[in-house]
Design a protein that fits this description.
Layout: H1 5-15, E1 19-20, E2 24-25, H2 36-52, H3 65-89, E3 100-105, E4 113-116, H4 117-120, H5 129-141
Antiparallel strand pairs: 1-3, 2-3, 3-4
Length: 142
């Protein structure tokens, strides 16, 4: 069987895609209070990067411990800066039990990472593996 570049592109597109669940209030999730800080930093980082034009550090393409340490140090510094930036400019922003969140997943519906709905609205909603394939196939055809 001959595998074409087009078929490879279709499957790469599907495997690398991210889907989301329908949104739910954060308060419906177990231990939702544990997620507040992570979601706040996610929102702060998104706003900071968008408004300042800065970017996240690139994950090193090696197993060098020093490079990995530098990467994580830089990432933490950017997150801290973003949090301070966001608090100064949006002091009234609050994440509570009514905040709408989604679960992010892969093309098979596997995943447990949650995200704010407002940061994930553009992602397709996961229905089934077949729907994921069809959705990504449409993207390749267009």
């Amino acid at each position: 069987m001959i595998v074409t570049e087009r078929a490879i592109a279709i499957f790469d597109n599907m495997y690398s895609g991210t889907w989301r669940s329908e949104s739910v209030p954060l308060g419906q999730m177990e231990d939702w209070q544990d997620e507040v800080t992570t979601l706040y930093i996610e929102r702060a980082l998104s706003v900071y990067l968008q408004e300042t034009g800065n970017s996240l550090p690139v994950y090193p393409d090696s197993d060098c411990e020093h490079e990995l340490d530098c990467y994580y140090y830089h990432l933490e510094a950017i997150e801290n800066t973003a949090e301070d930036y966001f608090k100064d400019r949006y002091p009234d922003f609050v994440i509570d039990s009514n905040t709408q969140v989604v679960t992010l997943c892969n093309y098979k519906g596997e995943g447990e990472c949650i995200s704010l709905l407002e940061l994930s609205e553009s992602l397709p909603i996961y229905v089934s593996k077949r729907e994921s394939y069809d959705y990504k196939l449409r993207g390749i055809r267009e």
